[in-house]
Amino acid sequence: MWQLGTLILIIYQSIVLPYSLAFGGSGNTVIDTVTNVIFGLDIVIQFNTPVAGLDEGTEYVTDRWEIARIYCRGWLFFDVLACIPFDSLLLWINQYDAPGSGNNLNVLGLLKAMRIPRLLRIIRVLRVLKILKINPEIRRWLQYSRHANLLRLVRLVASFLIINHYVACIWYGAIESDELKSQDENKSTVHLYISSFYTSLLMIMGQNITLYTDPEYVFSVAAMLFGSVLQAVVFGNVAMLIANYYENQSSHQKKMEWLFASMSRMKLPLDLQNRINDYYQAMWERHGTLDGAVTAFIPELSRNLAYEVELFLRMDMINRAPIFQSCSAKVVQELVMELELQVFMPGDYVVVRGEVGNDMYFVQNGICEVTKEVNPQTTQSFSPSVQAVPPDVVINEVVLKTLGQGDYFGEIALLMNCKRTANVRAQVFSELCALTRDVFENISLRYLEDRNIIEKFIMDKYDPSMLQAAMKQSQELSMRTLGVGPRPSILKRSTTPALDTDAIEILRRIEERIHKLEQRIEKDGEERRTRAFAREMVDSEDVFRLQSTPPQPPLPPEIEGYLKKLKRKTSNFTGGWNKRWFFVDPKRREFGYAKNKSPTAPRSSIYLNDITAVVQFDQTHFQVESRTRTFFLCGESKASTSCWVKSLEEYRKKLVEYEKDVAKRAASATHVAHGEHRARAPNAASGIPGHGYVMEAWVDDFD
């Protein structure tokens, strides 16, 4: 506050001092005395005010001796020189001289000159502006708001007037000749100042004035040269500031003119043109955008800043949506970042009854209506992105429910591929956030607990019979998409403009499913191992040798995930549980755990061949026994526990069958070998070399 008051006083002095030197008298005033006292106190305050270090990035200096040293090397000389009242000292010395002496005349002539050091106070503006603290919000508003151009314009005009004020004071106080002054005898000081101000303005603008002496001509030439540069700067900046002030309006006007011309060339219906104009007008009034990008700067931000902006914009919607209440903050954060903002005009259909749903919608702003046809005659098959209710078409619909900010609908589409059961249309200009099924699947697969919470929340909301019907529809649609069963003709579906878009979307999904099936088949083919069990009988010098390549044991499926490990078994499974990352490594044939998701360096493991039993106690607790040790484990959910137990038990059973089969084949091979050796012994005795070769193969069907 002190610095702000000092700044105002300096600005006042910068205007009054030149006027006082050029037009004022020699008397000392109360204002001058108060000003000298204030500037004297300011010198004392500067010795006790922390200052910034000389090096950039250093902290404030608080040591008094260091503050005094910095102040004495900087602004102290100018502050003291501007604060000393030289004119008052000169009058005090002159009072001892006799009246009417020549010294009195000299003193009166020097009195104005003694006030010149006070002009050094103007330099203090630089120091005050450097240390003046302005609120960051106010500073941003002054620099970057739309009204900042007007403030710059005012500052530019004020600077021009102050410069002209100084030129007028110099002209009258030091340059103007006695001939010109004689024309304004017996005039008031205000009249003399206005006349000088007008004369200086003419000189700066390059106009002709009456001159008499050489100093007047020289000063006029300098003022004209300086004025030409000043005019170029001032008027150039004025034009630029005015153009910047109206830049947004000009861009909007050009955009609407281009839009009008484009729609005219396309010969669009008037109703459609009006709706397009309403859309652009609404986006301009609400978000100030011309291209529909509401938050175009968010992709330029860092990840954390983008998270904060998205969460702030949708915080009200998140707080009102109960589906997010039980989810972890990380899941909510990732889902919010993947939401797609969609805008709907009044009367636009968001979803249409009978179409296959793939998105879930959250109402961020606006109001939507859930409607249903009273007696629908035909099934609607148009796309909601292009469909709206024309004003001359009456549709018999009844409003079932009204949705506001924070409400959501279509959540069943995240879980299954079923049809919409009702229409949802925008009552007013509405902004909705869409969550697609693909995004939900990609995120929820990494957070199984939150996925189970969301699924349970959605399932509890619907009637069991409705869920069964939706699941049946989902299965039928999935089979049709994969090409199983009758497939509806795409070309006969609709004749609306959304035909191409819908067909492309269906083909894209079919290609994705085919690609996934090809990957699965390739993976299964790699997992299926065909091994050969061969033996040769070589008869050389009555020596029988059996060569065989034993089959390899079945490869287990690769499984990994978090499990809780109990330190020791207790009666009620109480004790210290440690959450570890468990895995089944098919290559190493190991079952173990690591501290994190890095099974390449396991903390502890056992060979799968050593597993003797897998016992499940309840829905989540089970144990894995081996010849060396036993794991007491707890799964994250019922489904997760069942998956682990089933996979390990199936592999153990197949391994037992494999060992029995190996033993059986070895016995059979030995029996065959001995029989053939006995059968071929006479040939060897007769000198006929053995040439028998037997190959047996088996295929492991472990899946």
TrEMBL record:
A GO term (biological process) for this protein? regulation of membrane depolarization
A GO term for molecular function: voltage-gated potassium channel activity
Domain PH span(s) in chain numbering: 556-653
Query: Which UniProt keywords are listed?
Result: Ion channel, Ion transport, Membrane, Transmembrane, Transmembrane helix, Transport
Topology relative to the membrane: Multi-pass membrane protein
Residues forming the Cyclic nucleotide-binding domain are 323-443
Q: SUPFAM superfamilies annotated for this entry?
A: cAMP-binding domain-like, PH domain-like, Voltage-gated potassium channels
Transmembrane residue ranges: 153-175, 190-206, 218-246
What InterPro entries does UniProt report for this protein, alphabetically? cNMP-bd_CS (IPR018488), cNMP-bd_dom (IPR000595), cNMP-bd_dom_sf (IPR018490), Ion_trans_dom (IPR005821), K/Na_HCN_channel (IPR051413), K_chnl_volt-dep_EAG/ELK/ERG (IPR003938), PH-like_dom_sf (IPR011993), PH_domain (IPR001849)
Tell whether Metal-binding is among the UniProt keywords.
no
GO CC, sorted alphabetically, is: HCN channel complex
Localization: Membrane
The name of this protein is Uncharacterized protein
Give the originating organism.
Pythium oligandrum
